[in-house]
Batch of 2 targets.
Target 1
Amino acid sequence: MLSPKYKLWHLLPFAVKYARLRLTRRPVLVNFEVTMRCNAACGGCDYWKTPATERANELASFVEAARAFDPMMITFTGGEPTLRRDLEELVAEVARAVPFCYITLLTHGGMLSIERAQRLWDAGLDSFNISLDFLDERHDTQRGIPGLVAKILALVPEMRSRGMAVRFNTVIRDDNLDAILPIVQHAHARGAGVNLSVYTDMKNGSKDHLIRGEQYARIEALVGDLLTFKRRHRGVITNSDWYLAQLPRYLRNEMPEPCRSGETTIHINPQGIVRRCPDFPADKHWREYNGYAPINCNACYYACRGEAQAPLALSRFQDLIA
Ligand code: SF4
Ligand code: SF4
C-alpha cells in the first residue's frame, strides 16, 4: 500500500468498506480539488491562469463531504494544493473524521520542504504523489519552475528516510518515452512508487504532446518493459497490469466501451461542486451526487477512466499485498 501506517490486517476493513461502497454505488475515491490556483505554467493545462482572487471562493473545510462519502481513498489535489496555507488543517480534520481511508496529496512539489512534508504527514497523509515527467531539466521547462527536478530528486530520499510514502505521478507524452523506465527504476531504487497516465489534450486543447501514430510501436515495447518490471518488482508501479496492457488499444482508438468515470471516482471542486472527472464541468453540489451514467467519451485514459474498467484480477491482489 506504499504507506508504513498500514499493516496487513488493515486489508480486511478496507475490503469490507470497498464491498459496501460498490454495493451502494458510492465512489471509492474522492478527489478534493482544494484550489484551482497553481504557480506552475504547464503547456497542457490552464489552471495556472486561475486568478488569485478565487481564493476567496474556496471551501474552508472538506470534512463534511469526506464524512458523508466515507470513501476508501481521498486525494487532495488542485490546481496546486500546497498553495493553501491551511492544507495541514484540511488534511487533519478529514483524517480524524474518516477511519480506514487512504489519504494522498497530489502536488508538483515545488513548494514542498521537508518540514512542510513532515507536517502534512503528521496531519494524516498516507502518501505524497509528486508529478515527475522527466529526470532532467526538461521537467523544469515543461512545468515552468526552474530547479524543480533537482529539488524533487533531493527531497524524496529525505522523505523516504523519515518513513514517508512517496509516489511519482508520471504522464507519458510524445517527448518523454525515453524517461519512463528510468523514472520507474529511480523510484524503485529509492523505495518510492510510480503511477502512470497518458497525455490528453482535454485540459486546454493543446495537442503539443499527444503520442503520435509513428510512436505506437515504441509504446507497445514500453508497455512490455513495464509489465516485465511489474512482474519482477510488484508494488512499485501502482497501475494495474490491465490498465498498462490497454494503453496501445486506447492510443489506436480501439476502445469503444463507454467511460465509467464518476462511478467509482469523483472530483469535488473548490466550491463543493462535483464533476465526473477532472476535465468535465462541475455540475451538482456534492450533497446531490447520485452517480453518473457511463458516457461515450474517449478523450483520455486517466486512471479514473482506465482503472474503473479494469477487471478484478489476481495481479491486482498481488499489487496490493506487495
Ligand atoms: S498540470 Fe498541475 S502543475 Fe501544471 S499547471 Fe496544471 S495544475 Fe499546475
Ligand atoms: S474519457 Fe472519461 S475520464 Fe476521460 S475526459 Fe472523457 S469522461 Fe473524463
Target 2
Amino acid sequence: MRTQLLVALVLLTTATALPAQEMPQIDVPLLGENLIVNGSFELSPVGPVAPGEVPEGWSDEAYGADGQLTIVEDAAPGEGSKSLQITNTPDNNKSGLHGPFIEIDPTQAYIQFGWQKVDANSVGFGMPYGRQWFDADQQGADQEHTRSYNYLAKPDVPPGEWGFTQQLLLPDPTPDDGKFAANEIPANARYLKVWALAYNWSGIGYYDGLGLYRVDYASMARERILGAMDEADADAIRAEIEAALPNVPEGLELRTRATDLLAEQARISRAATQEQQRPVLDWMADETRTPEMLTELEALRWELKIEALLRTTG
Ligand SMILES: [Ca+2]
Ligand SMILES: [Ca+2]
C-alpha cells in the first residue's frame, strides 16, 4: 500500500513540474500540453493585429473585427514577455478573442486559468474570461433553462494590477436536470471554445498566460483513497475480519454484511490502484464512499469480536 501511495505522489510531483512563472497557485496535477495554442501570445509579433485578423492559434475577434487588438511587450506575468492588449472606446466598447474548437472528454477534469489586467484609469473590470461548450455537432451544448457559456470568477485585484484566475472544470454530476453550474462540463459537451473578452466598458485591458489543461484527477483521487485506507490500517482490519469469518455461522446477517463489505473494500482498492482512464464521477463516488466504508469496516471488526465472545461464553 505504501509503495502505491509513493508512486502516486511521484506522479503528482512530476506532472506539476511545469514553469512556475506561468502557473502560480495551480495545485492540481496536469496532463499533456496546454490546449490553448498561443495562450501567452508569444507566437505573435509585437504590434497592432490587423482588422479582420487574429493572433495565431485564435479563431475570431469577438463582436466583429474592429482592430482593437494589439500584441504588446511589457512585464507580462505569463510565459515570455508579450501579452494581448484590447482597447475599448465609448463607441466601440466590446472586443476580445474566441478560440477554435478544442476537443474535450466530458467525463474527465480540466482546469482553465489565466492572467488579466485593466489599466488603472479604466472603469470597472469587464474582462469576461471563460468558455463556450459545444456538442458533437459543434452546436451550443445548452439545454433547456441554461446557456452554453460560463466565465471564471474575475481576479480580486484593483485596476492597474495583473490578477490570476483559475477554475477546475468537473463533469456535471446531474446531467438529467437540464442545467450545469459554471464549473461543470455538460454531459453532451465534446468541444469548447475559449472566450477572452473585454465587454461593455471603455478603456484598455490585457490578457496573458491563458491555459487549459486536462487534470490528472486519477492521481489525486488515488492518493486520497489509498491514503485513507492506509491511515485506517484497512489491510489489518481486513485480515482480522477474514480470520474471524469462518467462525460465524452461515446465514447470519453479520456474515453477509461482512462478505459484502470486504468485496467492496477490495473493489475500491483495486480500482484505485489499477484504473487510469475511468470517469471522474466514478472516482468521486469512490472518494465519497471510502471514509464511510472504512468506518463500517472498523465497526464490523468489533461486532465480530463481540459475536465471537458471546459464542465462547454462551
Ligand atoms: Ca506572454
Ligand atoms: Ca446538472
